[in-house]
Amino acid sequence: MDFSQLAETMLALESTKSRNEMVEVMAWLFKQQPPDEARFSVYLLQGAVAPPHAGIEVGLGEKLVEQAISKAFGYSQKEVQAQYLKSGDLGKVAEKMCSAKRQASLFSEKLTIKKVFQTFYRIATLGGHGSQEAKIGLLAELLNNASPLEAKYIARFPIGRLRLGVGDPTVLDALSFMHKGDKSDREALESAYNKCSDLGLVAESYIRDPESIMKFSMQPLMPVRPALAERLPSPEEIAKRLGKCLVEAKYDGFRLQCHKKGDKVEIFSRRMERMTNMLPEVVSAIRQLKCKDMIFEGEALAYNEQTGEFYPFQQTIQRKRKHGVDEKAAEMPLRLFAFDLLYVDGKDISQEPLHARRKMLEGLIKGSQLIAPSESYITSSADEIEAHFQDFVSRGLEGLMAKDLSAPYTAGARKFAWVKLKRSYRGELSDTVDIAIIGYYAGKGARAQLKFGGVLGAVYDPHTDTFQTIAKVGSGFTEEQMKALEEKLSVIRVKKPNARVRSLMEPTFWVEPKYVITVNADEITRSPQHTCGRDSGDVGYALRFPRMVGDVRTDKRPEDATTVDEIIGMYRSQRRVERNVQEEQ
Ligand code: AMP
232-422 maps to which CATH number? Predict the structure, then answer.
């Protein structure tokens, strides 16, 4: 299929905020495409050439794209820069210059989706001496063969500014719509996606044979979308909901999904990035485990070998680095507390009950120095849960995880198979909230120099694939953090809010949803100013006295922010606790 059809689809997606329309537009596109080409389209629509875990990013700097535009259309780099400064959108610059080319193309060939995909893939994977020049050449060649509309999207793509507002749930709905005319296959598609984390692969398989997605199973070396935890406000509620359950220490480190296939080992983060090269000692500990292949999960923490004490998260996260890996590993060795086993020796065991998976896991890691089972207890008593909670918190841990002993592993979902209970302080929510930054404010008064006055934060709604505002956060930042945030945010400013953003507020600058921060607050209140969970009475939910805690969450994507449903659940349980306190008084 010609790339022009994909460019037209991109234009239609960009021009609407109606999710149903987006779904229909994409469904129409997928319907015209052979399976392998639909795979390319899925990646391209999401601004990528591969699933995130492949670690293949096009990521060209703006300067290189400016050079390519200049080379393709015969304008000087100065002219390109001046136009860019005026419009703030390299896509528009390319579109305009393409329709007023100053040099005729020598050989013009019609662009196909396959050609565009393959060229971007090459750009992403070229390395070594002279690769910059080669990348500019390849991009210029694409632009040279493009129509003005195609040029707009080709120029936006490598700098990550497609602005189409197409999240995973929208693509899944579109696939279902294409085949069924409704969303009835969404759940099955999502379940397949949860097992392989590759939306392109799911699209290709589904278009080839819709039944195939029912047979998807986990495969070592392909990351599984992580199970998520629900919240309940008290040990009583946990005991009531789960009955006899497994109570585990909740460690404040980073989650690792460990894959082994023969001698080959891969480790993925919570957001399914490849971390294998950062953790050499963990890789060798996994390699030594006595099984052919496996997928298991655990939480890794740095610890002080002399005192046996665990370091706080801020220290552990320093192990997430590309350079100086061995030195840091020696200085800050990790322990891995394993808590789940999903696959072993050719078998997907994720649907077996937790107690069976746990037993197998403990057998497999026995004898390892670095990998230990998470500390756990079986109980059905609220008093015992409370006692474990107090014990964990007094030892500096984050709280506890209570898990349904009979539940399967709920990949990519939050289904009361796991419940978290975190320590909290008086006047604070029972849990922190992770918000996606969608805009920020220029500093006033004392903050004018820092050019940073705070952020506008949103939570995520996976049902509608939208970001809904919940708080303006202006406190909790250190001066360094404000400087660093301003630097990060100023390069992702956009003129209009992203198509997936729902906001009644106007920050000084809008930004692409990219960064997540954790905030604490006194409570959740109803508010007409925020769009989070806004119902027919036009009242949303807001955080009262929000403040940032910790640092930017490099382990979470904007779609991993707290969800609207979670906020509503937290609001309800906060009301329940208030009522209980009042009744006791
Ligand atoms: P939260 O990020 O607050 O939603 O809590 C869920 C996270 O807790 C998981 O993604 C893990 O990274 C972490 N965690 C720590 N200890 C455990 C445990 N024993 N079982 C499961 N997850 C754990």
Answer: 3.30.470.30
